[in-house]
Write a structure and sequence with these properties.
four-stranded mixed sheet, TPM domain-containing protein, Diaminopimelate Epimerase, Chain A, domain 1, alpha/beta, TPM_dom
Length: 141
């Protein structure tokens, strides 16, 4: 198993908490291996999960290949147009400090929370907001 049930629960709860404050959509995808370049693989997963189809183009993907120790964060055009240039790299650095100690749930929780703060700022929750993307973690391999 890539993540224990407890780890999965922590991550899903972090997503739900972040999305209560925003119309943005956060998705976590985990696999064992990442063939080739991690950003290219994350882009493929982003498209496969249809994160580019959110109404405001404000989907965010957290991608992790556990065995290969590769991860990436991708934001869609809507959010990338409004966050600072180093925004995702700063979050990635914060997450990496947990990942190197195999604290995947804690790392994801930190990244999701920080992303949620930015999403709330630029894409606040609307009363008619619908959850466009499942909060559950998706798995590859």
């Amino acid at each position: 198993m890539l993540l224990s049930e407890e780890q999965q629960s922590i991550i899903v709860e972090a997503i739900k908490a972040a999305e209560k404050e925003t119309s943005g959509e956060i998705k976590v995808h985990v696999e064992q291996f990442c063939p080739g370049d991690v950003l290219e693989r994350a882009k493929a997963v982003f498209a496969q999960l249809e994160l580019h189809k959110t109404a405001q183009r404000n989907g965010v993907l957290f991608y992790l290949a556990i065995v290969d120790r590769k991860f990436a964060i991708l934001g869609d055009k809507g959010i990338n147009d409004v966050v600072p240039a180093n925004f995702w790299q700063d979050i990635r650095n914060d997450m990496q400090s947990h990942f190197v100690m195999n604290q995947f749930a804690a790392g994801f929780a930190v990244g999701i929370q920080k992303s949620g703060v930015a999403l709330k700022q630029f894409f606040p929750y609307q009363s008619d907001d619908i959850n466009e993307i499942s909060d559950e973690i998706s798995f590859g391999d």
